[in-house]
Write a structure and sequence with these properties.
3 helices; alpha+beta
């Protein structure tokens, strides 16, 4: 019985010092600059991305303000749903020139050692995305993430809009990145 109690106490004490690994360190020295909570639609001000980058990176299913909208024309819609763009877009940024074309206020990046990955997709909420795994597999850098669950009874559905995951990590010789939203 004493050995059992000593074992339980050891586990409890070691848990106090090691924690539950909630904020585990990501491989490749990856740091999340945006976990998907940046959403851009035409009614919000944009402090993050350049106007030209946003115009060139629309995503399927997102709702956008009609640039040709005429309030006098009853058949003309103020908002349109994108039906032609890709469902997602991924950018691997390895040079300062590229970074400046994407961000209004670029993050600090040492491009000798680091790079930025930007993933753009359409969603109907602004829930946090949690990175689960990053790995190099068959010349593709794979990133798995989950979507934080909504609080019970909390309704957070919105009109479809673009969302952004931005990751700074050690520089790799990659040309392909895949993101996969996995279930918890």
């Amino acid at each position: 019985m004493k050995k059992f109690l000593l074992g339980v106490i050891t586990i409890i004490v070691s848990g106090l010092f090691t924690g539950c690994n909630k904020d585990k360190e990501l491989p490749y020295n990856a740091v999340i600059l945006s976990n998907g909570t940046i959403t851009i639609n035409e009614s919000t001000s944009n402090e993050y991305f350049t106007k030209s980058f946003l115009e060139q990176n629309m995503t399927f299913g997102a709702k956008y303000r009609n640039p040709d909208w005429d309030s006098e024309d009853e058949e003309n819609r103020e908002y349109l749903y994108d039906e032609t763009s890709p469902a997602f877009r991924t950018h691997i940024i390895k040079e300062q020139r590229e970074l400046d074309l994407v961000f209004n206020n670029p993050p600090q990046v040492s491009f000798d050692e680091e790079m930025i990955i930007v993933y753009i997709f359409t969603a109907i909420n602004a829930r946090q995305q949690i990175l689960k795994d990053l790995r190099l597999e068959d010349n593709t850098f794979k990133i798995e993430f989950t979507t934080k669950e909504a609080k019970p009874g909390y309704k957070d559905t919105s009109m479809p809009m673009r969302r952004f995951i931005v990751i700074k990590m050690e520089k790799l010789d990659i040309t392909n990145v895949s993101f996969e939203n996995i279930k918890n």
